[in-house]
Amino acid sequence: MANVKNEKKYDVYGIGNALVDMEFEVEADFLKSAGIEKGLMTLVDESRQMEIINTLHGIQHKRSCGGSAANTMIAVSQFGGKSFYSCKVASDEVGDFYFKDLMDNGVDTNLSSSSLESGITGKCIVLITPDADRTMNTFLGITQTFSAKELIEENIKNSHYLYIEGYLVASPTGKEAAIKAKKTAEAHNVKTALTFSDVNMVTYFSEGLGEMIGGGVDLLFCNESEAYAYTKTNTVAEAATALKKIAKSFAITLGPKGAFLFDGEKEIYVVTTPVEAVDTNGAGDLFAGAFLYAINSGIAFPEAAKLGCMASSLLVTQFGARLRREQAIEVKSRAL
Question: Fewest Cβ atoms closer than 10 Å to its Cβ: which of 138, 201, 254, 326?
Fold first, then answer.
């Protein structure tokens, strides 16, 4: 594959829900007592989110600008690529924090300090249990009104890939924005990538995801559970056969088992080194970011997945949804 990084301004243009992540270490018993479904992302209103925060007694880690696609765009930047992120935050303290954190991580954005609207910036409580599983309760806030107005079409055209976060399917205007962005990309020969994001999105919004996928995407990211839920299958081989009907290529992450890939011609299985995980939050987002960086640098699918697996394996051994830039650079030097 030829290296084409210099032909366009951005490697990846991402769209998704802007959420400030607040991560807590908790015991599994807390989830039961609070009535929280373990291992899933659940949408809640602000009062319910505050109720959970007020009853938390776990260890809190530093907050960060997040949301699935934001984590992926930051990863692209950390590995040395150029990314753009369209999102929506409010003109509150949390929104100002989000905008600055995005800028500090080298990601260009539609946001500006003068363009933020009044409202409440979305927040996500990430609850990490001793088995390293992550459970999320999300108040979308103003990002629920993310729409086509937040798209910068000229920058979509000037990107190699458009990356769509599946979480957008839960908002009517977000879904419409995703569909419009995809049409813009396709009209200008920009490749399209989509992540299913969470098994709840697949379970409850499968029809909407189908609308976002439309006639198909160039690259699909999902984990094993999401693949099974969307295709209504029970094995990776069966899921792969079904996914080939909607995606020219795809990556199914398999947690500690590695990843299963289809590059458009052949199936590839990449094994990862087992590690002692403490926090799996953001692992799939990081895999996607590393993978997108690599294929935009002319690297083939197996080596791109190797980079993604190595980065994710390091991430899950520490708390937080992203690596430090120096960690990303070190992983890249070992993987490529």
Answer: 326
Domain boundaries, the chain: 14-335
Close Cβ partners of 327 (under 8 Å, ≥ 6 residues apart): 314
Exposed (0-12), middle (13-18) or buried (19+): which is 59, by Cβ within 10 Å?
exposed
Write out the H or E segment, with its range, that includes residue 321.
none
User: Quick check: 160 and 296 in contact, CB under 8 A?
Assistant: yes
What does the pLDDT profile of the chain (336 residues) look like in tens digits? 344 455 899 999 999 999 999 999 999 999 999 999 999 999 999 999 999 999 987 788 888 999 999 999 999 999 999 999 999 999 999 999 999 999 999 999 999 987 789 999 999 999 999 999 999 999 999 999 999 999 999 999 999 999 999 999 999 999 999 999 999 999 999 999 999 999 999 999 999 999 999 999 999 999 999 999 999 999 999 999 999 999 999 999 999 999 999 999 999 999 998 899 999 999 999 999 999 999 999 999 999 999 999 999 999 999 999 999 999 999 999 998
Whether pTM > 0.90 for this model: the answer is: yes
Residue closest to 66 by CA, chosen among 172, 140, 8: 140
Query: 14-335 in CATH: which number?
Result: 3.40.1190.20
Closest CA to 169 of 108, 119, 210: 210
3-state secondary structure of 254: coil
> Quick one: which of 297, 271, 282 has its CA closest to 327?
282
| SS3 (DSSP) at 36 | coil
Tell me how far apart the alpha carbons of residues 288 and 308 are, in angstroms, rounded to a whole number.
7
**In the block, which residue shows the tokens 């100002």?**
96
DSSP3 helix / strand / coil % (the chain, rounded to 5):
45, 20, 35
Residue 214 has a CB neighbour count (10 Å cut-off) of 14
